[in-house]
Every structure is written in structure tokens, then in C-alpha cells.
Amino acid sequence: MTDSVDIPLLQNEIEKELASCIDASTDPRFTDYEAMFTYQMDWESGFQGSRGKRVRPLLVLLSTYSIGGDWRKALPAAASLELMHNFSLIHDDIQDQSLTRRGKPTLWINWGQALAINAGDAMLALSSLALQRLNAEFTPEIVNQAAALTHNACRSLTRGQFLDISFESRFEVSLDDYWQMVGGKTSALLSAALEIGALLGGASPTQCLAMRSCGFILGSAYQVQDDWLGIWGENALLGKSTQSDLLARKKSYPILSGLAKRQSFYTLWSKPGEILKEDIPALVRALTEDGVKEETEAQMEILYRQTLTALNSADCFPEYLPPLQGLLNKLMNRFQ
Fold first, then answer.
1. Of 75, 86, 145, 322, which shows the fewest CB atoms inside 10 Å?
2. Residue 242 belongs to a domain
3. One-letter-per-residue 3-state SS of 106-152
């Protein structure tokens, strides 16, 4: 068993592992190619400390630790999921035509769509290569299981993104459709992170399934909270405009809940034509007055309780569980 852990220590080791996986070229022809990775990973000031939230790799390592395994051995899997996550972010920003992420211009804004797509493809390749580094510590069977979980998560992720994009051209989208989308786009990587971490920690199949369930429900909770932030959050917290979901007619949880009520928000939303910036205050006010803000917060609370119930069923070592519980609590309270 490894020594006690804290988040800053894990974040520092994650950055080192990511930098090692990317392994910058010395060929001057690829200087700008490497610069895209440095920019996307928020390494403009060097590799010291943590950049971005690094939620998925932290979940991998803390899951391994909570089961009683050596979290250092799981670092390649942690890096793999973070690289896959960034592949999806690069492509998602292009597909959504997002101008900013983490408070700065998105990759495609600075390098153009063609080169950004290429960088995203490279991130996905690097994600697969990172998994091969597990061979130094684990049997081929375990490595193959981890790879299968990772690649299946990527497939689910793209299916969720397909649904999310297709919703933009549909007026009628049900909450069942929404949960199906969230299960792929958000829950897939979080679920894989906790399950892979448990697998690499030596967990039993039952424990792995419990961790998978915990991650899946966490993804739903995280997305509903993200949707809440997308309407009622602070710009500084999000690093993006809180108007974007409404302007893009995004089928988020609050918006779908508001439409289902067929009250004042439904009337405003159903007006023909584009939604303009000056329309946003009235739409937000209508959602609040229709009770959607409180309903969304109640849904978040339900999902968070279910997340913790699933974690408790994983039968982790009580003395090694607090760091993972602490991270989950932090993720569950981003809006406070």
C-alpha cells in the first residue's frame, strides 16, 4: 500500500505523467504542433502544479488508493483518460463553435479548425499509447481490460456527443433523451475512471461494478450541475459566458424542465426567430419563476446522494476513502 495522499501531490504527478506521455519533439518543424498541446493542457508557464481540473485522472488514482492499491502504478491510465478528455474538448469546441474555454480562446480560435482537429486526433492517439505504459506493472489481462474500458468509454462519449448535437435541430427533446445523452457525453469517462482505478487497485468484480455505478451517477449529477451553472453560474467560475446555453438553444436540464412545464418560459422560448442577448434576462427570470431553478437543485441533491450510496457499496478501505470522498464533495458543490 502507498503512503497517504493529498490532491496537490496527485496533481503534480499527473502533470509529470502527461508531459512524459506527450514527449515533445526536438524537430523544429513541429514546434507549433507541440505548442498546441502545451496550450490545450494549460502548460504555458511550465509543468509545475496542476492545470485545468484534472478530475478524471484524480478519480482514477483515488479509486485505486481507496481500494488499497498503489496509485502510482495507475498513473498511465489516469493520463490516458485526461488525454482522451482533451481530445473530446478540442473537437467539442469546434462543433459548438465555442470561443473560450478555461477563460482563454479555444484551440481552434488560435490555430484554425483544420489544425485543431488534427491536434484532437493526436490527443486520442496519445491516449491509447499511454495505456501501453501499464504493461510495466500489470499483467496483459489487466491491461487489456483497462484498454477495453477506455475505448468503450470513448465510443459512448462520441455517441453522447452525437445526441447532443442532434438535439440542436430538434424542438421536442424528452428528459429520457437527455439522460441518454448525458450517460455518454459526461458519465462515460467518469464511470470509466472509477472502474479502471478500482481494477488497477486489485478490486473484486463486485467492487469494480459499484465504482462504475458511482462514476455513472456522478456524471449525471455533474452534468445537471453544469447545466445549472450554464444559466445561474458566475462567469468567473465557468471561464465562459453563462448566456451561451440559452443563446444556442441548448437542450440542458433546466431548459428541458422549463419546456415541460409549458408555463412562461415555454411561451418565451417558443417565439420564432433567434434568441438575442437582450432576451436572456427575461428567459432566466422565467425559468426561476417557473420553479426550474429549485427543481434543478433538488435533482442535483438526489443524484449526489445516489452517488455516495454507490460509493459506500464499493466496500473500500475506510482509512483510504476520505480523499476520494473529499473530491466527490468538492465536485458536488461547485455552485456554492
1. 322
2. no
3. CHHHHHCHHHHHHHHHHHHHHHHHHHHHHHHCCCHHHHHHHHHHHHH
Q: What pLDDT does residue 332 have?
A: 83
Name the one residue in this structure whose C-alpha cell is 495505456: 131
- Asked if residue 240 has pLDDT above 90, the reply is no
pLDDT in tens, 102-150: 889 999 999 999 999 999 999 999 999 999 999 999 999 999 999 999 9
- On whether residue 255 sits in a domain, the answer given is no
250-285, pLDDT tens digit by residue? 899 999 999 999 999 999 999 988 899 999 999 999
Q: Could you tell me the CATH number of the domain that includes residue 41?
A: 1.10.600.10
Decide if 21 is inside a domain. Answer: yes
Q: Is the confidence at residue 2, as pLDDT, over 60?
A: no
Q: Does position 317 have pLDDT exceeding 80, yes or no? A: yes
Distance CA 116, CA 90 (A): 7
Identify whether the C-beta of residue 193 lies closer than 8 Å to the C-beta of residue 63.
Answer: yes
Whole-prediction pTM: 0.92
Residue 51 above 70 pLDDT? no
* Residue span of the structural domain in which 118 resides: 7-219+316-332
Dist. CA 312–CA 324, nearest whole Å: 11
- CB-CB neighbours of 141 under 10 Å: 8
d(CA 334, CA 336): 6
Residue 217: C-alpha distances to residues 30, 50, 181, 199, 283 (Å): 41, 26, 13, 19, 29
Distance CA 285, CA 295 (A): 15
d(CA 73, CA 69): 8
Query: What is the distance between the alpha carbons of residues 306 and 296, in angstroms, rounded to a whole number?
Result: 16
Separation of alpha carbons 47 and 12, rounded Å:
8
**Residue keyed to cell 478501505:** 317
